[in-house]
Amino acid sequence: MSDLTLPTTAKAVTFSAYGEPDELRLTDTAVPQPGPGQVLLRVSAAAVNALDWKLRRGFMQGIFPVTFPHVPGLEAAGTVVALGPGVDSWQLGDEVLGLALAAYAEYAVADAATLAARPADLPVETAGGLPVVADTAVRGLRLLNLKPGETLLIHGAAGAVGTLAVQFAVEDGVRVIGTAGERDQQALRELGATPVLYGDGVIDRVRAAAAGEPVVAVLHTSGDGVLADSVALVGGPDRVVTIAAAQEAGPLGVTFTSGGTTETAVEGLSRALSLHAAGTLSAPVRTTLPLADAAAAQRLSEQGGGRGKIVLLP
Q1: pTM as predicted
Q2: Which CATH class is domain 9-130+284-313?
Q3: Which of 172, 289, 295, 310 has the greatest number of CB atoms lying within 10 Å of its CB?
């Protein structure tokens, strides 16, 4: 249902073959129609995630096969411009954020149940980068089943997922030790974590930071070659979770998690927006780029090293 005049075609970023970022093209595509339980968004901001370029390179063919031409994107902030059958939770003109497939576009479809209202004082670029990291942080912490007072190690704690996971864990009364580069140490302190430098000798530095308290769980969001030592640190793989090292995880018995549920998506956004309402949310945006520069955005994402989300603005 829509009382708004919508175009039949609009701009979207597509790729029609696996390969380099230059495979991404800004093209005219048909405006999608929302199905039952879905809404159509006029996209205001769509964030770049590592899965986007891994799909483009063909790394995920066995897990997430795509049909060409494929429109990347997993999340967006935008305006509700059409309602699918059975949707009564949103109205036309509502400003929302949430998971949305094919979000590198001027218009994208999203499941109504996974969306949250965007507060007027939350910038669209911040909102566009929240849904995936909030869902992932909640999912990882749930799998670790932490209790107040326990000590958690987060590898890549200054990254987009790590930053939210630190905030959620600290809010739950968990003691957090987080690995990060030199320039991000103070940012982690401000979030309530104990920072340690990543790199050679990191586990020894973690033990020193723990000051005799056992590290009982590990959330690995980035970093190469640290899972085996993390398993040894906590005494087994049962409470080690990775979102970034599927191949390394399997032989070690470590849980690899990818892809959430409506429940974790809703909880993640609820928690993030509660932090925003309290004035304490930290969700950095690394840079914003126009939709036409999606190739440059994915190059930046592949290079890594920056703090915060890369966000496309249609």
Answers
A1: 0.95
A2: alpha beta
A3: 310
